[in-house]
């Protein structure tokens, strides 16, 4: 099978089955490959051209080089971690992918492909659907809103969903751009030309956006830029890696956000995870806190309420 055909097959399967990631990892003389969906790993052989979830090193390297080339990554660099994003053309249309490669101490490369399922193009399920309306009603004011949760829990997708429903100009700053949205002004970090998060935040403020989306807060300059944007009267959405709703604010301070300034501009924190539903699919469950409204919904409350609904559904179907 040609490499192009194999890559098409893998990407098509990933989107059809609502997978989150595809992994290609070196393992002795072979490469190990598998899909991930939430916290579950799937080893799929049916209709694919490899057995025992293994590829020869030659085939795996061809596959890695193909995606690196498509993602405008440095094909010759096999040691440093590289990131990329592409719109992959399939018969059903373009599909958005995020790419990540890195080499180990033996300079053996690995590849992870993130499948970016867009709202409106993939099934949406919420354990507590009323939570979306709460977010829509309480995330419109000027100030800083933090979106937290594990990798792959849909933070960026949720920010885009909320921003689409607001009137005005939306500017996004990401590394890389994950979801293509023609109605937004999308900026991408490029360290080679000194376009980092901090510089792009300063640039975006000159355009006076109604909503500014920051792909990830990960260093002092980015959090300080996000706070500065919120204090100057902008509605700012940003993702943050935090393990819970309660730890998010402490995480911001740890990264360099001043507590006094944060108190002036922080409007809300949303924490989310993907959890299995009664039929085996994955659905979003959220906890949140909105400061001005003194509105709070804890993770424990969400789990309890979701379990009650699942039991009610099970009793009805039985």
TrEMBL record:
Domain of life assignment: Bacteria
A GO cellular-component term linked to this record: plasma membrane
Gene3D superfamilies given in the database record: 3.30.450.90, P-loop containing nucleotide triphosphate hydrolases
Family matches, as Pfam families: T2SSE
Keywords assigned by UniProt, alphabetized: ATP-binding, Nucleotide-binding
Family recorded in the similarity comment: Belongs to the GSP E family.
NCBIfam families per record: ATPase_ComGA
Protein name: Bacterial type II secretion system protein E domain-containing protein
